[in-house]
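Risk mitigation, structural track. In case the binding assays with uracil fail to produce interpretable data, a predicted complex structure has been prepared as a fallback.
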Amino acid sequence: MGEIVRLQKYIAMCGKASRRKAEELIADGRVKVNGEKVSEQGVKVEIGADRVSVDGEEISLVSKKYYIMLNKPVGYVSTVSDQFDRPTVVDLLSEEIKTRIFPVGRLDYETEGLLLLTNDGDFTYRVTHPKFELGKTYIATVGAGLTVAGINALKRGVKIDDYKTSPAEVEILDSNQGGTYVKITIHEGRNRQVRKMFEAVGVKVKELKRVSIGKVELGNLPLGRWRYLTEHEIHYLLNS
Ligand code: URA
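Fallback model:
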């Protein structure tokens, strides 16, 4: 008998989507097990015995896994395809890895920096789920008006969209006519979180760049270029 796993985990193992995205696929009625539509969560499948399809296409376990770091430029969306036909981060990858790979979380259209991509749904789950508390560090260039009280509020947590952010690490790096450069580490990944956090303390983010996820750093990877993660980085991200 094959291993029994939850359906959303199996979909992730097949590299079709992250676990969370897989739950949405199930809820949307796009998944069938042995030809029967399954739209409730919690169903289990036996690997190697049950046939699972998404949008009518049978899925199978991924043999080769890819783990990639990209230095995303401004002006690209962090999805595989865009409804407005804007350039996507996948356009920046080479042909042989373009297929079946998806971004780990997302960066806004106007944000640049470190973006991970993979076909390993469990990896996505480990890196994006707040319970694993991986810090994501950004350099924000902000406009005038950041006060000590504002910095302390960011450190303690601020209210955005009826939600209080968890404590952040905040450090002022420099300040000149171009703006104030702030290094900020957050442990969640809400939609436009860093921009909204600064908005909550009355300052506008002019530029935003992600420079690290946990201990994995963008380093000097040029803008628009990608590289494979090292074994060490993959192991660290899967186990931290
Ligand atoms: N916070 C933001 O505001 N934007 C991003 O792209 C990532 C984090």
